[in-house]
Amino acid sequence: MKKADWILIAVVLFLAAAIFIMLICGKKDEGNLYAEISLDGRTFATLPLTEEVTLPVSYGGGTNLIVIENGTVCVREADCPTGVCVKTGAISAAGESIVCIPHRLVITLRSANGEDYDVIIQ
């Protein structure tokens, strides 16, 4: 291997390490996130993820128990037939959602600074 090969390898490794560090230490918006809870297409509540909240929500004869803790939101209990909303688990990033179709419930995490996307691809 020639000297130029070693320089090329060093540059590639340096760039890979720099990208890795930027991804790991990247800006987090944990303090600026809020959960937008919608029932039947209408906003029911808007709650920040910085607070600990347990909120029972009833609609159309069904009940969901929404829990916000440690910067995440989840549906802890639901009496819908499939329980997909409970199986979704906790969400914590802007743009993520939990949906309960039988109860017409949608929980979406939004960023207070308006950036609800992870990546833009052209």
Q: What share of residues is helical?
A: 10-25%
- Order of strands in the sheet with the most strands? 2-1-7-6
The total beta strand count reads 7
Distance between the termini: 38 Å
N-to-C SSE string, H for helix and E for strand = HEEEEEHEE
Strand content: 35-45%
On the 0 to 100 scale, the average pLDDT is 86
Largest sheet features: 4 strands, antiparallel
How large is the count of helical segments? 2
Q: Could you list the spans in which at least 5 consecutive residues all have pLDDT below 50?
A: none
Which structural category do the helix and sheet elements fall into?
Answer: alpha+beta
Dominant shape: elongated
- Roughly how many Å is the radius of gyration? 21 Å
Explain how this protein is built:
The structure is a single chain. The chain is an alpha+beta fold. It has 2 helices and 7 strands; from the N terminus they run H-E-E-E-E-E-H-E-E. The protein has helices spanning 3-24, 84-87; strands at 33-39, 42-48, 53-59, 62-69, 72-78, 97-100, 105-111. The strands form 2 sheets. Strands 2-1-7-6 form a 4-stranded antiparallel sheet, with no helix packed on it. The radius of gyration is 21 Å and the shape is elongated. The two termini are 38 Å apart. 16% of the residues are buried.
